[in-house]
Amino acid sequence: MLNNLKTLFCGLSLNSPIVLLSGCVGFGEEYTRIDGFSNTDVGAICLKSTTLEPRLGNIPHRVCETPSGMINAIGLQNPGTDVVINDIIPNLDKTETHFIINISGSSIEEYGEITKRFDNTNIDAIEINISCPNVREGGVTFGNDPDISYRVVDICRKNTSKPIITKLSPNQTDIALNAQRCIDAGTDALAVINTLMGMSIDTKTKKPIIGNNQGGLSGPAIKPIALLKVHQVYQVSKHYNVPIIGQGGITTANDAIEFIIAGAATIGIGTALFYDPLVCHKINDGISEYLNENNLNNIGDLVGILELNYSI
After folding, report:
1. Residue 71 three-state SS
2. Which residues contact 31 (CB under 8 A, 6 or more apart)?
3. 224 φ, ψ to 5°?
4. Is 178 helix (H, G, I), strand (E, B) or coil?
5. What is the share, in percent, of the chain residues with pLDDT greater than 70?
6. CA nearest 157: which of 136, 183, 186?
7. Which residue in 10, 132, 182, 280 is the catalytic one?
8. What sign does the CA torsion over 39, 40, 42, 47 have?
9. What is the Cα Rg of the chain in Å?
């Protein structure tokens, strides 16, 4: 890995500023079956969202392609906390990269219980999913209410000494206020943004294509929104040295660089993997080349250096 890509994030030394996003890489080993892919190309892998009890997920269809993106409503299908802790985490190859567990609960107390259980594992960090747009309970409500967001982060903070990353929803009035409340509650980092809520309709059946009616829109279609949200959150987080995982439609090195300039310390890759599983290597090379061309020593020299035309 190129030396200028090494990044310090929440006390973790990352090979690269790239984080593979939850829900896009299963439980960390799926893409290693592809010739040319290596987990050493990324700084961390965020595992599939895990709930306390097993979930079957939503009825099909769960995924549909949209212009410049896709909608998904998997519904947090997962085998449950105990299976992930006992059967999956022990088999992760931690010599290659860092692993982050993503957790989701249907109540504040459930978030606390899941966090407590993962605190006793060797997982590197815990990402709190308070903004999943495709489950009927929890998710949307938690992530769109700053006070409830505070309570979720607070109970998780009390149940772990591991780094906590809070994944923020773009589907709210004031994302900067929510970021502030999460920081007040003790989050160590912020993931900005989760997917936007969207719908696609089958004109023949006159019904939504997604079985859940709505789902999370991801891909290049949401990139301009994600960039603005990263900038807005950075105006708060920079005062507390709370780093951001910038995510939403990143497919190229230039996309990644935009997010870093806006304030992201690391960048998340998700939907792009579905059509280019080797995209991470290309993004790493592009970021490194950009740093060299601009006489920058590392990613940190680029974070948040955006110069606005005028105050917004």
Report:
1. strand
2. 20, 25, 37, 39, 273, 277
3. -60, -35
4. helix
5. 96
6. 186
7. 132
8. positive
9. 18
Query: Which residue, among 6, 30, 71, 17, has the nearest Cα to 255 in the 3D structure?
Result: 17
Provide mean pLDDT across the span 298-310. Answer: 97
Show the tokens assigned to 301.
Answer: 């020299």
Task: Answer yes or no: is pLDDT of 136 > 60.
Answer: no
Q: Which of 103-107, 165-169, 261-265 comes out lowest in average pLDDT?
A: 103-107
Cα separation, 37 vs 33, whole angstroms:
8
d(CA 229, CA 235) in angstroms, rounded, equals 10
Please name the residues in contact with 214: beta carbons below 8 A apart, sequence gap of 6 or more.
71, 73, 133, 134, 197, 198, 199, 208
Rounded to 5 degrees, what angle do the CA atoms 286, 291, 294 make? 125
Tell me which amino acid residue 212 is: N
Q: Which residues are within 8 A (CB) of 220 and not within 5 positions of it... i.e. 6 or more apart?
A: 68, 69, 249, 251
Residue 132 catalytic? yes
List the end-to-end C-alpha distance of the chain, in Å, as a whole number: 38
In the predicted model, is pLDDT for residue 142 greater than 90?
no
HEC profile of 55-103: ECCCCCCCEEEECCEEEECCCCCECCHHHHHHHHHHHCCCCCCEEEEEE
Name the residue with higher pLDDT: 5 or 148: 5
Question: Are 283 and 35 a contacting pair, CB within 8 Å?
Answer: no
The encoded tokens of residue 191 equal: 């993931």
Q: Predicted confidence band at 106 (pLDDT cuts at 50, 70, 90)?
A: confident
Distances (CA, A) of 116 to 25, 87, 109, 199: 24, 18, 11, 36
Q: How many residues are present in the chain? A: 312
Contact between 248 and 218 (Cβ < 8 Å): yes
Strands 164-168 vs 12-14: parallel, antiparallel or unpaired: unpaired
Q: Do 65 and 211 meet the contact criterion of CB atoms below 8 Å apart? A: no
Q: Please name the residue that has the structure tokens 């519904």.
A: 75
